[in-house]
Amino acid sequence: MLKLDQTDKELLTLLQNDSKQTNKELSNKLNLSVTAVYERVKKLEKEGVVKRYVALLNRKQIEKNFMAHCHVRLTQHSKEFVVKFEREIIKLEEVLECYHVSGDYDYILKVLVKDMEAYRDFMVTKLTAIPNIGNTHSIFVIDEVKHTTSINI
Amino acid sequence: MLKLDQTDKELLTLLQNDSKQTNKELSNKLNLSVTAVYERVKKLEKEGVVKRYVALLNRKQIEKNFMAHCHVRLTQHSKEFVVKFEREIIKLEEVLECYHVSGDYDYILKVLVKDMEAYRDFMVTKLTAIPNIGNTHSIFVIDEVKHTTSINI
DNA sequence: TATTTAATAGAAAATAAAACTATAAATTAG
DNA sequence: CTAATTTATAGTTTTATTTTCTATTAAATA
After folding, report:
1. Closest CA to A139 of A108, A104, A102
2. Residue B15 CA: distances (Å) to CA of A54, A113, B77, B90, B153
3. Which of A3, A4, A59, B121 could form a cystine bridge with A8, CB 3.0-4.6 A?
């Protein structure tokens, strides 16, 4: 695993907030040459510390303004059934995140759709169409208070 | 609100998956000229459909390999107390996401830290240091099955 | 002490973004 | 219905950025 020095960490913080900055801008902020920044970025990409660069969209402007957390319990927990469930859940475009978790339920899904009607549709025709689903429990998002992809290093 | 045509939607999908593609690459995939792509991207940025461009990191490589969902109930729900809680929760670097939600609890926090010890520390010295917190209930992530920032348009 | 390695800087070359000009199709106004 | 305007596009030129190459310095190693 790559050892990160303070400059790497600062660089990663900058890139997490705005990946469209030029190397020149970054070099000014970090007091480095353009080449030094370039080499560091390439190294961080090559080592997999930087996974990818993406555009983040405004959910409201693309008509996806309804979010829910859906807790799911399976009926069977043998490896075969778990693998099958996970393979199916990954395919569902409405599911942005899926975690295998501790506690009362087996999985938590973060689901994003247009509205409640679309959520009902998702539950009835997509989620519960997957075999092996026992119980589900939906929690609806009233307001997004904080949402960042930037990890403090 | 900007009306998106099919080309805009395809462009947004491409940018959500890889924002480092050149306009030339995008123009090939969309069967457009470089200028046409350039103009569309600028329009989408200006209208706020594209919120920002960010680098996504590999959590494991930066020693943040412990995630939990923390459900929080407040003791008081008047506007004054809610605002105060939200203002404090936003400041906490370990909290990547915070949602005001329906159901038994008032908020769900997505918390990312190094390990269980760091989580305990977060709970004891940061979260419960905020006044007005009643109950909390932590759900630990055993495995991340799916995680995308890309919204299907 | 000599040699290698790692990190950096500066210059040059290659590439891409941005700005500009022009054209055609669609929309609007008279 | 026709002229004017707007919108979306393409091609060209200019500007800026990325990438490569060469060189230097400091630290680590033999």
Report:
1. A108
2. 6, 20, 40, 28, 12
3. A4
Angle at alpha carbon of residue A42, lines to A37 and A47, rounded to 5°: 130
Residues whose CB falls within 7 A of nucleic chain D?
A 22-24, 34-35, 38; B 7, 27, 31-36, 39-40
Q: Tokens for A33?
A: 């040459």
Segment A24-36, tens digit of pLDDT: 999 999 999 999 9
Cβ pair B51:A56 closer than 8 A? yes
Residue A141 burial (CB count, 10 A): 20
The pTM for the full model equals 0.94
* Domains in chain A: ranges and CATH: 6-46 (1.10.10), 66-140 (3.30.70.920)
CB atoms inside a 10 Å sphere around CB B42: 11
pLDDT in tens, B60-94: 999 999 999 999 999 999 999 999 999 999 999 99
